[in-house]
Fold this protein.
Amino acid sequence: MDNRWRQRIHIEPETGWINDPNGLCRFRGNYHVFCQYSPDRADGSTPRRWGHFVSSDDMFSWDYTGDVLRPDIPEDKDGVFSGSAVVSGNLMHIFYTGNVETPDRAAYQIHVTSADGHIMSSKKVILTPADYPEFCSCEVRDPKVWIEEGIWKMVLGAKANDGRGCVLLYEGSDPDSFRFVKSFDKPGHGYMWECPDMFSIGGHKYLGLSPQGIPSEEFRFQNVHNSGYFRMDGDCLQDFTEYDHGFDLYATQTFTDGKGNRIIIGWMGAGDAPYTNATTDLGWQHCLTLPRILIPDKDGRLRQEPLINDRLCGSVYTVMRGNSLTASGACDIRIPECGKETRIHLGDAVISYSDGILEMDLSCGDVGRGRGRRRIRTGDIRDIRIILDCSGIELYADEGRFVMSSRFYPENAPEIRSDTDDLIITEIKDMEVRRHGRRRSGNDR
Ligand code: FRU
């Protein structure tokens, strides 16, 4: 088996396809990450299930327990779509969208509970198409639920009948009795809003979102679909800012860790993209991003900091100009002061910064599988940090104010070199994933 492109520190499937992270939560001291999963087809052409990973307190070594939610009722027969989890009492409450494509498209919001993230209760349909406001089309999905001052709140992504993306807010006194309260939208921001996420950090309120159909600009919104956030002023949506400007980031979700940090994880992939992934022919496709801490600047703009446990860091090397180091696994590459311009080579991939423009160039040979050059306007930046994995680059510039995540497929382990004397490379130990396969669970039929 060709395992050259197996990620070492990113969650990915052993076989099949994954997309959105779902149900992120901390429950009884463990972290749970579910994801959209088609275990049998690397092209994702079978109805989605939820795969389940659980870690102890480090979010770095995981147990994969199986595909724990499968389409098995009429209301989710064409897919257990995205959703979220809330911990209340001794239970994890999971909410997801049941996708039905025939004879007409319909979306049901469904609630299940679990005491371990693996064995699920029976499914309860809590919202049907009759419960969506009249101005909405049949595209309504991706419940993100939280509890605020004792009230259960849910946001849903939707497409309005007039072709605008919007978010619906529902509230209830318990997890089974949500009622529509109001909607949010912003003209000019696409036709369908997926994966909404409403949260506050340090007094700033945000609506995270994956909108489809925002027109591309030279330095922004360059993917077919984008993922980012609106700052909120009361109910009013301010400017939309992308979380990430790389080729592969979509469908982000956030949750709070044991230290009170707001953590974001995204799908390190992109829907409807014109580029491909070299692992598809090997039987698997896509991964999730590393967990990242979201930190607001004074003005509320969000920075992102990858979560890498010190325990996992190995040897540290300083690589001077003219020298290079071959990356045999994952590593953390830093240029603490990047000056007016700099260039870093990761084999055939090149990251450069010059005149206030940061560029990721994956156009050499077939390393990008159709991904070319991606440029963003950053203005002056201080530092560059790259988390390199065997087929992925997460680039953080200016203390994570600008992030670019992309897959890439080097033929050989990339040689890392730069034009500075200040390139610091820290080896990162491989993440542990123990795979248990699927134990029988309550909803097996
Ligand atoms: C986003 C998305 C969600 C949907 C899921 C289906 O990538 O389209 O809106 O719930 O993927 O896999």
Summary: The chain has two domains: 16-306, 312-432. The mean pLDDT is 95. Residues 19-20, 36, 48, 81-82, 97, 141-142, 194-195, 250-251, 271 surround beta-D-fructofuranose (CB under 6 Å).
